[in-house]
Amino acid sequence: MSSVPISQWPSEYKYSAPVAGDTEMVNVTIDGVEVQAPRGELLIKVAQDYGTYIPRFCYHERMKPVGMCRMCLVEVEGMRGLQISCATPVVEGMVVTTQSPDVKEAQDGVLEFLLINHPLDCPVCDRGGECPLQDQTLAFGPGESRFVEEKRHFEKPIPISDLVLLDRERCIQCGRCTRFAAEVAGDPLIDFGGRGSSTEVITYPGAPFSSYFSGNVVQICPVGALTARSYRFKARPWDLSAVETSCQSCSVGCRGVLDSASNRLVRFLGVDSEPVNHGWLCDKGRYGYEWVHAKDRLNIPLVARGGGLVPESWPQALELATSVIRDVFDKHGAKAIGVLGGAQGTNEDAYAWARLAKGVIGTDNVDAQLGDGLPAEVVIGMERATIADLDSARAIVLLGPDLKEELPVLYLRVRRAAVDLGVPLVDIGASNTGLTPYAQAVLRHLPGDPEAVTEKLAAALAGQPTRPDELRPLLEAIDKRALIQKEGPVVVVLGRSSVAEAADATVRAAAILAQAGISAKFLSALPTANVHGALDLGLAPGFLPGRVTLAAGRDELAKTWARVPEEQGLGAAKILANAAGGEIKLLVLLNCDPIADFPDGQLAKDALKNVEHVISLNSFTNESMRHADVVFPITVWGEQRGSISNIEGRVARLGRKITPDGSTMEPWRIATELAARLGHEMDLESFTEVQDEIAQVAPAFVGVDSKLISWARDGAVLPVADHAAEITLALSSLDQNKRSAGVSWEPIPTSGEDTPGNGAVPPAVISPPRPAQALYSWAKQAPERTAALADSYSLRLVASRTLYGNDLITTQSPSLARLATVTAQLRVNERERDRLGVADGEVVRVISSRSSIELPLVVDPSVPERVALVAINRDAPGASDLVDINESVTDLRIETLSKPVIKES
Amino acid sequence: MAIEETRIVTKFLRDRPQDSWEYAVAREHNQAYSALEAALKRDPNELIEEVKTSGLRGRGGAGFSTGQKWSFLPAGVFPRYLAINADEGEPSTFKDHMLIEGDPHQLIEGTIISAFAIGAHHAFIYIRGEFALGTERLEAAVAEAYKNGYLGKDILGSGFDLELIVHQGAGCYIAGDETGLLSSLEGERAMPRIKPPFPAVQGLFAAPTVVNNVETISNIPHIVRKGGEWYASMGVNKSTGTRIFSVSGMVERPGNYEIELGMSFRDLIEGLAGGVRGGRPMQFFIPGGASAPWLLPEHLDEPLDMDRASELRTMLGSGSIMAFDDTVDPLLVSWRLARFFAHESCGKCTPCREGSSWIEKVLYRMTNGLGRPDDLDLLLDFGSNIVPGLNAPFAQTTICALGPSTMSHVVSLDRCFGAEIRARLQKDFDKRRSLEVTPA
Asked: A306 CB contacts (<8 Å, ≥6 apart)?
């Protein structure tokens, strides 16, 4: 126990006040009104659900009660003195008074105490105007202060991380931030120091609050003690206008509210969406809005002229693009055209481009995934889990990337399931991840070879006798879990832990679990923002919008589309290979940069060098568009309405908050413009028309029309026939400018009774055709090659993402840019470093079958032996120089540049 | 009848032939661990009943029945823990200090018997960080106990296992609160926790836990040896047995006195401690540690009885008595106590965190001639937001009893010297105003 930080202790070792209610309902009388609530539920919550707001500062619905602020005192009949309602569970027959003279006096007293040391610098405080301390003082507090002494003084503000500043004078010591850091984020880097009225929030010496989730403490702070560097003094709350939207920095799709002032985005706050993000955001999502205003944004079309790209008008640029497409089509046929990307846009963009490529031009060489994903038939065909399934799972199996780095808010959810709900966790992978400390079983394997350990796990989970040692804690945890959660699925979080190896082995491992008879469900961990929407809407070879194959959907689609491709086209790797080889003459790049993003950088470079024509849609210039014929500037997140699909296949709406600078266009509109010029009118005039057409023609989207998307508060999981009961409609969501009541710091109360009954929720809709269980066919495939390392000097490469790299969001957002790491490093453990005889940080030569580059070597104790880690979102030279997309794994040889240091014995 | 001590837990450390706490001496002259030998042959439930019969009440301050506390542990839930509160931090209390340094084996024996009775296999002694010598001796004594087979696996062949860990605090008054102690023991900041859940249900590491005071536990071997009936035969009403009182302040012979409960304050202060120094008249005394409301000389003939103290709207608390003669300024005493509580408030609950230092600031100006006429009423008014009703036994808006402690001396000021203080504040105020220069 002693070596494990307290924050990582399993829940049974941690003190916890009662939080969860059981199913038995009890009668409680609150201010004379009798209400029903689950026994054990906290009084403050019960009162709130029935419309009685009890003032509070420290209580937060997503954290355990701590009873510090003493603001929520109420009178409970039969109990001596006043009780804190945030820690009082309801029992049968409880009679509560929330507004008696005694209660009022106590509330008045607590506020007087809170204000004696509060600086009252409200005119220059970011919180002023939306401050719970202000609001509650107005409603419950004294009108004057009797404190005549000097207030407490601290230096103000002090940075506690690169993103967050702390004003200790304003702090009211509610402990929300410290509890968030320890309980929710698992990064206990802030705590209280000092005693009495000198109590202050502190960081530990030499260790800033460098959590990926630090921005959440700013949002939940009930005063202006914690402020965000990005927002300080930017606006007054009453000057903001807000819209609810989904975050697009990764594919979790956290719900949030985007604020702007004077047509500039200034803030993004999390919204408490029970099925998705519980109100939390990662710092990249929270502060990543800044890139929208980057000064290098493209805001006018560019065309190739005189050896460079020069500005051009939209009509001319569209004409030029049309003639390029027509020219290639006429000379070489549709198969000479390849479309890459589209995983960053909206569902409407994905559909319109799928329709343009497949239904107008007729090419099936379309792929939204740039070699960093899973086969489309697997993602579309697997038994999908929702995020909420993690809470009720029998066990969670991690078979994919480091969620903390790639899908941070999903990491919080899995961590919560493991730590607070006691869901057993299995970590399968080649190296340690952020969730490894919480796992009951850690199954390490050589990169590219997860099958053997997975087979062992599947057998154990299926109840077959197994070697007890390493899986015993897991099986014990599952037995214990079975006492409260007998049924529940085994949720497998499935993704790519490394792009240096083919996806096949991971898919085969997943297939083993799918067939083990353990009711496995799969939660996709593909990180690109809207990759799931792109796949669902046909931006994958062999698929049409609505999760149907070409064969299954052809007849239906042909009623709306001019044509449907005859045979399955190529995936990204083959498209690039054919472009390099000259068979593909035109590449359309939908908001993507293959040279930077494709794992095999050499292949991408060859392809873009050799291909005759390139049409690129993007918001920034990049290396891949150097030889483009036409570059279209596009609108981005915050400037465009529409919808996205997250990892669960949940379709949720995106809001528009600002009008873009310059003349940019939504990608879907560019598709309709090109289609019209190619002689095919799509007849789509607005994003709602695109949504309605999707609901019409795409089987999996039946019922998900523009009306449902705008009304469903947490979005709708596909297919809605299976998930209709989970849809909550919200009246307020229609009014895009209306601020939801609790956004600033309270979660929105959940009650689903305001269904308008106008048919927005579809009745029993027809079930869409399900693709055959794609995973089953994978299991039968034999491994292609033995996974052993070539020789004892080789290291095997793991190439994965980190949260802050050279990506646009990080580098173009001033707040995040200071956190960006852009140069690649070779990370190995100490023993491998010693074998090479080099110093930490020394540059070494890294040789793969592809090429040889020089990288600094850094010791990382979390990397196992025989493995080398290189992050992929780094500037060249880096991982993409080493990977050969045709190889199933990437083995490296390391050579020292200096003379090796020989230790004398 | 001569006024004298009734020595039970202090007998050995007072009367032993050689001044040594060590095992060999304690074994030879005090039958150390003989009660343990007997206890291990008995049924644990029988031991709990024995303690219930004795009427032993917690000696830490709250005075809760020890046997009852033990029987609150939920049946069948293991592991469970025993934590001994040796974080004696109440100003003017120094009895546990003496017991730890003077007779550590008695404490260890009591701990083992108690752990056996409640079924705990891990016990912790949380010792105040400032007790350097006590820690040194206790650790040495624990090592001796291990060596002689009283701790560890299969104690004295009974099949009962117990690990005893001595844990040093880091100098913090609030670690003496039951739940604050548990937080500190877990490695966190010593802050009290909200109850429920009570420690008996979810205590240390969320397991059922009993927390007992050093003096309480030191009584256990004697109760086991001589029986609960014997213990209950001493004392008065529901305050059975003996109790150590630390008498300090302006008395001739300050020190620890173990007496049978029911003795009068006068006998203790004047009889045993020699009365007020230099024969001066007593002005007031604090009967139960810094947190207890004050009493006046007219109360000297009241008995030392926990329930009677409640009727007098004070408490015997941690068992210490501070006497003050007529040379003392009660305001200065009050300010000094306020300063202590403001310094030790852990910062968790708003009323105590902010209120304790506000009280200190107001008392400071009152003490130094800068008070305003209504300052005492101001204190009582905002203080009633920490202690609604201002009457002992105190109600509180805070989690632990430190909140009401910050107000108890202010309440006493008003109760004992209210009129004088108000007159003094008015006088100070008038004097200041007369000195004000009016512009010509």
From this structure: none
Rounded to an integer, what distance in angstroms lies between the CA atom of residue B406 and that of residue B421? 19
A267-316 residue pLDDT tens: 999 999 999 999 999 999 999 999 999 999 999 999 999 989 999 999 99
pLDDT at A746 over 50: no
- Residue in B with minimal Cα distance to A192: B189
Banded model confidence at residue B1, pLDDT cuts 50, 70, 90: low
Burial A546-565 (b: 16+ CB within 10 A, else e): bbbbbebbbebbeeebbebb
Assess whether pLDDT exceeds 60 at residue A425.
Answer: yes
CA-nearest of A14, A555, A817, A212 to B183 is A14
Class of domain B330-435: mainly alpha
**Residue in A106, A116, A192 closest to B347 by CB:** A192
Q: Determine contact, residues B116/B47, Cβ cutoff 8 Å.
A: yes
Instruction: Report the 10 Å Cβ neighbour count for B86.
Output: 29
Give residues with Cβ within 8 angstroms of B281, minimum separation 6: B297, B325, B326
pLDDT digit string (tens) for A480-513? 887 777 778 899 999 999 999 999 899 999 999 9
| pTM of the predicted protein model | 0.92
- Residue in A15, A102, A192 nearest the CB of B388: A102
pLDDT, mean over chain A: 88
Contact A382, A514 (CB under 8 A): yes
Instruction: Kindly report the nearest CA distance between residue B233 and chain A, in angstroms.
Output: 33
Substitution target in B363, B397, B402 with the highest count of A β-carbons within 10 Å is B397
Q: How many CB atoms lie within 10 A of CB A568?
A: 15
- Which are the contacts of A544, defined by CB distance < 8 A and separation ≥ 6? A354, A358, A538, A550, A552, A553, A554, A557, A564, A698
Q: Where is B428: in which H helix or E strand? A: helix B402-435
Q: How far apart are the two ends of chain B, measured CA to CA in Å?
A: 75
* Residues B234 and B260 sit within 8 Å (Cβ to Cβ): yes
User: β-pairing, A200-203 with A226-228?
Assistant: unpaired
Element (H, E) at A676: helix A667-677
Q: Where are the domains of chain B?
A: 11-232, 235-325, 330-435
Query: Quick one: pLDDT at residue A662?
Result: 87
CB contact under 8 A, B194 and A17: yes
% of chain A at pLDDT higher than 90: 70
Could you give all domains of chain A from N- to C-terminal order, each with its CATH number? 6-99 (3.10.20.740), 302-372+532-736 (3.40.50.740), 377-531 (3.40.228.10), 795-896 (2.40.40.20)
Is A113 within 8 Å of B385 when comparing Cβ atoms? yes
- Among B347, B361, B388, beta carbon nearest to A82: B388
Rounded to a whole number of angstroms, the distance from the CA of A191 to the nearest CA of chain B is 9
> Are the beta carbons of A195 and B347 separated by less than 8 Å?
yes
- Supply the pLDDT for residue A202: 95
Of the candidates A66, A89, A196, the beta carbon closest to that of B342 is on A196
pLDDT greater than 70 at residue A779: no
Q: Which residues of B touch A146 (CB under 8 A)?
A: 378, 382
Please report how many Cα atoms fall inside a 13 Å half-sphere around the Cα of residue B74, on the Cβ side.
Answer: 13
Chain B neighbors of A16, CB-CB under 8 A: 202, 206
* Set of chain B residues whose Cβ sits within 8 Å of the Cβ of A69: 349-350
Question: What does CATH list as the number for B235-325?
Answer: 3.10.20.600
State the pLDDT at residue B264: 96
Which residue in A has a C-alpha nearest to residue B365's C-alpha?
A149
| Class of domain B11-232 as given by CATH | alpha beta
Task: Give, in degrees to the nearest 5, the angle at Cα A751 between A746 and A757.
Answer: 135
Q: Report the candidate in A667, A714, A664 with the shortest Cα–Cα distance to residue A690.
A: A667
* Least CB–CB distance from B187: residue in A6, A84, A175: A6
